[in-house]
Amino acid sequence: MDRFTRIQSVTFGEQALGLPLWAKVFRRVEPLSAAGDADRFTRSVQFGPAVTGAEVKVRDVAAAEGLSPGQKDTLTLHVVAADASRSDRVIEIAGAVLTAVEIEYAQGAPAAAVLRFEAESSDGQANPFAAEDDA
Asked: Which of 59, 62, 66, 91 could crosslink 19 through cysteines, CB 3.0-4.6 Å?
């Protein structure tokens, strides 16, 4: 199993988000439980549409403050393999919509920004998540 130990770069469209501290990419479905009035427990679990998104924490507060919630573009993360004989990985989330920009000011520490994204599918069927080895 490949391991990755460093985030080399993060971009949102053409905007580089410098000095990345961490990134979290998620793909999930929300459960929709169903039961009858007389049922004590859930009788079936179905799912809503799949949601793809990411959270990124960067020290480049100026770049983060230049972005606007609701802005949509491709989010790209380039992560470096732990083993030099392995390939790095490029993760793309197409149609990423910026949903939040949170600036953190900690006592005695440099400011940082947390950016939250959720992706839109181009047609409701296309998966906005792609990850491939950087050859």
From this structure: 59
| Strands (E) located in the chain | 4-12, 15-16, 20-28, 31-34, 44-47, 51-58, 72-81, 88-104, 112-119, 129-134
Whole domain around residue 110: which residue ranges?
4-33+42-134
* H runs (alpha helix) in 5-134: 61-65
What CATH number did the domain enclosing 14 receive? 2.30.110.20
How many residues can be counted in the chain? 135
- Give residue-wise pLDDT tens across range 52-94: 999 999 999 999 999 999 999 999 999 998 888 788 999 999 9
Q: How many domains does the chain have?
A: 1
> In angstroms, rounded to a whole number, what is the distance separating the alpha carbons of residues 43 and 53?
30
Instruction: Name the helix (H) or strand (E) containing 135.
Output: none
**With contact defined as beta carbons under 8 Å apart, do 95 and 121 qualify?**
yes
Measure the N-to-C terminal CA separation of the chain; round to a whole number of Å: 17
**Where does residue 89 rank: exposed (0-12), middle (13-18), buried (19+ CB within 10 A)?**
middle
